[in-house]
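anyone seen this seq b4? input:
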Amino acid sequence: YTPVGKAEQGKFALEVAAKTLPFYK
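predicted toks r here
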């Protein structure tokens, strides 16, 4: 269990979502 890894993964997922979301609208 790595809180830091999870935080990084979450931030990465957020960035990817923010970049790809506009393409689906």
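The first helix runs from residue 3 to 20. The chain is about 70% helix and 0% strand. kinda curious what u guys think
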